[in-house]
């Protein structure tokens, strides 16, 4: 009974071991396949600096006294400008720079170019230039004398022999700066423009301001290890690949060995005897022995030794519920009656 209990416990332990190793193997294979379905690492773009710079442009318009403007001589931005009442314009401008990083210094230059465009000709001239410090966070002014410009246009038309039907007066600011920070220097450019367009067939002069602000964003790419969630845990892909591979290498041979061993333990003692000594055992349905001396052997291994020494086969006979093994040597019969508890496994 004690031996039976040991056999039951042994089979239970093997079953538990197979179940545990199978679970580990399946989980490891799943993790390995899943870890190779995602990248080992990902690249993320991170903002390192953001710089905003602008040229704040405003203007006031000088006009002739009229009932249109309620006898005012100055009108503000956004109000309609009638060409016949337009005397001039005072443009105010201020350059600004802001950033989300520490700025150690700003260097650069600027220049202002006036361009007069007509359908027949165009002229450009630099009307101002200097160091960026002179307009950085400082209010500056530029006056446009419309009557003087129209006189210039008429003179050019007369010399060329044409009559312009429209005119564009353009002031372009060319700003080129270098912003020094702790880590690096950023070179930025800005080209704001204020444009006055006058079509002789229309009474109103239109004003447009473009390109007077820009935002520069500097960034860099950083490599981030990829993590996967497996069985409630966040695991790095590299770690998952390594340990799942190691667990597969360990669990698969162990599982194979235990399965083979469990199959062997499921063999009955008689099956093991027949398998081990199949070359010297012959199976008989019946055997008749008369006038022979019988010697009972209590250990099967002793019977094997006798068979080897006598060079006689072992006869196996099933007698009801018993199994008898015999070595017949002349008039002596060496007999072993099978009992499971007497066979060493």
TrEMBL record:
Residues annotated as transmembrane: 12-36, 242-262
Keyword Transmembrane: yes
Alphabetical UniProt keywords: Membrane, Transmembrane, Transmembrane helix
Name listed for the protein in its UniProt record: DUF5305 domain-containing protein
């Amino acid at each position: 009974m004690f031996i039976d209990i040991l056999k039951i416990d042994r089979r239970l332990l093997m079953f538990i071991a197979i179940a545990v190793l199978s679970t580990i193997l399946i989980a490891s294979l799943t993790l390995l396949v899943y870890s190779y379905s995602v990248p080992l690492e990902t690249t993320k773009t991170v903002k390192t600096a953001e710089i905003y710079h602008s040229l704040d442009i405003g203007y006031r318009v000088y006009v002739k006294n009229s009932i249109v403007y309620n006898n005012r001589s100055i009108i503000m931005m956004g109000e309609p400008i009638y060409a016949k009442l337009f005397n001039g314009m005072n443009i105010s401008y201020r350059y600004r720079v802001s950033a989300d990083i520490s700025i150690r210094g700003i260097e650069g230059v600027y220049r202002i170019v006036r361009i007069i465009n007509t359908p027949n000709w165009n002229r450009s001239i630099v009307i101002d230039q200097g160091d960026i410090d002179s307009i950085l966070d400082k209010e500056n002014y530029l006056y446009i004398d419309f009557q003087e410009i129209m006189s210039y246009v008429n003179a050019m038309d007369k010399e060329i022999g044409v009559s312009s039907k429209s005119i564009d007066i353009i002031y372009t600011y060319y700003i080129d700066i270098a912003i020094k920070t702790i880590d690096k220097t950023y070179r930025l450019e800005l080209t704001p423009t204020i444009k006055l367009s006058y079509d002789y067939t229309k009474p109103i002069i239109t004003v447009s301001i473009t390109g007077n602000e820009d935002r520069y964003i500097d960034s860099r790419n950083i490599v981030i290890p990829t993590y996967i969630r497996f069985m409630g845990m966040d695991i790095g892909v590299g770690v998952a690949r390594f340990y799942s591979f190691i667990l597969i290498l360990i669990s698969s041979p162990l599982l194979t060995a235990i399965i083979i061993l469990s199959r062997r333990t499921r063999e009955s003692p008689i099956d093991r005897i027949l398998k081990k000594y199949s070359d010297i055992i012959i199976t008989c349905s019946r055997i008749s022995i008369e006038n022979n001396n019988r010697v009972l052997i209590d250990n099967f291994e002793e019977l094997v030794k006798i068979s080897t020494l006598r060079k006689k086969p072992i006869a196996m006979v099933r007698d009801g519920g018993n199994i008898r093994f015999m070595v017949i040597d002349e008039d002596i019969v060496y007999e072993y009656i099978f009992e499971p508890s007497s066979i060493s496994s």
